[in-house]
Design the sequence.
């Protein structure tokens, strides 16, 4: 099976998935939760009557109300609401539904949300830089004319591919289904980066071993053989994680559903990119370098 020989089709598949997400991001962006925009969250137990809760909240000045339900618990997210309005809302709610009880009420200011947004960007950027440095050091004994930094750079390109796919899909989910991203989404992105680079390193390490033993005269064939040798292991590992996440998504609490969904999409994408994209990019980088040397000779 010649996977690397069909890499143009693999690139095309990636573009088919990425382009709608990029268009969605440019038009609709991401639907941000109060973690990023600022607002209030109220958790109420003892009722599942969303219509009545929403009506009482509307009456007391709540705006942009989003309600999620799970096991007789309602989580209501809104624009920031003054304490006086909130107390009035709870008094009326308990009067209408005596079993209702407030579990939690908290507000997130816009300054905190801006800091969180900035820190999220820095965290992802730093993670990418450290990955390049780590892989450059780990693969420094690789055979010439391969360069260790190429492994790190191509791994980061594959990671960017994964992040764009996940963020693009969530942009579309936000527009069409109202799904918001919160601080847990950033945690999911970092987890996806870690999982994806781990899978990529397994494939790259096999390529490195073969390059040292066999040389790089037929680099494309060497990479293809390395992929085939690690393919079963990569797919089995990913399937184990995906099945576990699927169970969590179906039977876990409402509060972790978006986090788990992001992991499901990201790990599936990361498995694809670590097997089919990262190695293909390495081959094209190697070939491009060879063409440039021939041209300059």
Sequence:
């Amino acid at each position: 099976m010649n996977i690397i020989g069909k890499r143009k089709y693999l690139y095309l598949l990636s573009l088919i998935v990425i382009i709608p997400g990029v268009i969605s991001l440019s038009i609709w962006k991401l639907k941000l939760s109060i973690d990023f925009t600022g607002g209030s969250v109220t958790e109420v137990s003892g009722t599942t009557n969303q219509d009545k809760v929403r009506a009482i909240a509307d009456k007391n000045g709540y705006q942009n109300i989003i309600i999620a339900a799970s096991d007789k618990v309602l989580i209501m997210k809104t624009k920031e609401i003054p304490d006086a309005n909130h107390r009035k809302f709870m008094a009326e709610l308990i009067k209408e539904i005596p079993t209702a009880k407030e579990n939690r009420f908290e507000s997130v200011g816009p300054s905190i949300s801006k800091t969180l947004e900035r820190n999220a960007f820095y965290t992802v950027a730093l993670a990418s830089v450290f990955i390049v440095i780590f892989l450059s050091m780990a693969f420094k004994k690789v055979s010439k004319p391969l360069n260790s930094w190429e492994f790190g750079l191509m791994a980061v390109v594959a990671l960017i591919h994964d992040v764009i796919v996940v963020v693009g899909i969530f942009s579309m989910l936000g527009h069409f289904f109202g799904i918001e991203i919160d601080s847990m989404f950033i945690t999911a992105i970092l987890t996806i980066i870690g999982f994806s680079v781990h899978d990529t390193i397994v494939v790259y390490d096999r390529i490195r071993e073969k390059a040292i033993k066999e040389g790089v005269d037929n680099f494309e064939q060497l990479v293809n053989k390395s992929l085939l040798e690690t393919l079963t292991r990569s797919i089995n590992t990913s399937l184990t994680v995906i099945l576990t996440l699927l169970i969590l998504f179906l039977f876990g609490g409402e509060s972790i559903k978006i986090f788990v969904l992001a992991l499901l999409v990201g790990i599936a994408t990361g498995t694809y990119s670590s097997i089919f994209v990262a190695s293909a990019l390495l081959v094209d980088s190697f070939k491009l370098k060879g063409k440039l040397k021939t041209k300059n000779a």
Remarks:
- The chain has a mean pLDDT of 86.
